[in-house]
Amino acid sequence: MLDVLIVGAGPVGLYLGALLLQEGLAVRILEQRTERSTHSRAIGIHPPGLAALAEVGIAADLISEGVHITRGLARSAGQPVTGLRFEGIGNRYPFILALPQTRTEELLQARVEILDPGALLRGLAVTALHDAGNSVTLTAARAAGEGLDTLEADSQHLTARLVVGADGARSSVRRELRIATRGRNYPDTYLMGDFPDTGTDGSAAVLYLETGGIVESFPLPGGLRRWVVHTDTLLAGACAADLAQLIAARTGVAVPAGENSMLSAFGVRSRMATSMVQGRVALIGDAAHEISPIGGQGMNLGWLDAAALAPIIVAALRGESTGLRLERFEQTRMAAARRASAQAWLNMALGRPAPASFLETRHLLVRAVFGAQWPRDLVARRFSMAGWAHR
Ligand SMILES: Cc1cc2nc3c(=O)[nH]c(=O)nc-3n(C[C@H](O)[C@H](O)[C@H](O)COP(=O)(O)OP(=O)(O)OC[C@H]3O[C@@H](n4cnc5c(N)ncnc54)[C@H](O)[C@@H]3O)c2cc1C
């Protein structure tokens, strides 16, 4: 019998897989997709995320490939509002690392394959789960493409002593366990895209606080910049020229629309599972808590779940009693998710459209408060998740 079955080979499932394989456990990671998604999502890896990734030996590779964001700038109507430095946050990684999620997942997968070339099983979608008390059996159907809509008729059964659902916001494991979620859909919508960096902000993240809504700009490897624009409605059919026009109208920055390499419109919701542990099954990552991407914390939060859960799994498989540790795991990880969610809500609220008079007053206040160093350091620590323990 296997020790652990992990459902989902996103960044969180792959990371947990690598941690457990390093402990010598018999692990299989089931992933419905036959190929990794190229849809661009996370780019920000925070210092606690890097500390967690160092435990599976890939932080150095990520750090050498990613852009080190050492400062953040806020501007409005062409004028500086304030600036933050991440160098002063006093930890091992004094920067936020910018690297596309697909590349991070590639490096995680490579690590898993070094530890056990047979651990990752792609093209297997979990459709049912049975917890027998001393083991858990998953039913998985072969998926020919992206997922549950491409399932083939025959299915197979896999049994392990423990199961972890790292299968994202629409988690099948959560559904099988009948664990409810609580949350809300936010009115905020965004259009984002990657363009060649033609500006002079280098490795700084820039927030443009404008009357029409926030525009965010982040450096990416390969001389690119990611632009994220708050929109009035979901602009699902927008093209790169529409995004370039929105950026120019609000910030005055001209991005080369013809050289756009990624474009995506998204809405925002937040969902928390009412429980992360049930019987021999645990939920981690977006399966347990979906956080607004504004603030860039979801993937990092999931890694911290996995880092906290892995030693408990190892202890449980050794026969140690882990009831209290699991209770504490659930309490602390849900508290972390609520904290991240509140931070993301604040980030969204600050980026909503607002009249010029309101913004001017707010900027005056920000300039007065941020005249001192400590409030800037405090906010820099909040943005970079500094101090969030990965154990
Ligand atoms: C626009 C955007 C920007 C973001 N930016 C950031 C950022 O900068 N920093 C950050 O930390 N986070 C960010 N996030 C959030 C981040 O992308 C997610 O939190 C992260 O992907 C969650 O990882 P996960 O492994 O839990 O889930 P997922 O990445 O969703 O992976 C789940 C995996 O499970 C598989 N799966 C699902 N169901 C089944 C099944 N039944 N059987 C088998 N496999 C299954 C899926 O195919 C998928 O591969 C962003 C999100 C968005 C949308």
Please tell me about this protein's structure:
The chain has two domains: 2-43 and 101-180 and 274-346, FAD/NAD(P)-binding domain (3-Layer(bba) Sandwich); 69-98 and 185-269 and 354-383, D-Amino Acid Oxidase, subunit A, domain 2 (D-Amino Acid Oxidase, Chain A, domain 2, 2-Layer Sandwich). 34% of the residues lie in helices and 31% in strands. It has helices at residues 11-22, 47-54, 59-65, 101-115, 172-176, 240-251, 298-317, 323-350, 356-369, 373-383; strands spanning 2-7, 27-31, 44-45, 67-69, 71-76, 79-85, 96-98, 120-122, 124-131, 136-143, 151-165, 181-196, 204-208, 215-220, 224-231, 262-273, 277-278, 281-283, 289-290. The longest helix has 28 residues, at 323-350. It is globular and about 65 Å long. It starts with a strand and ends in an 8-residue tail after the last helix.
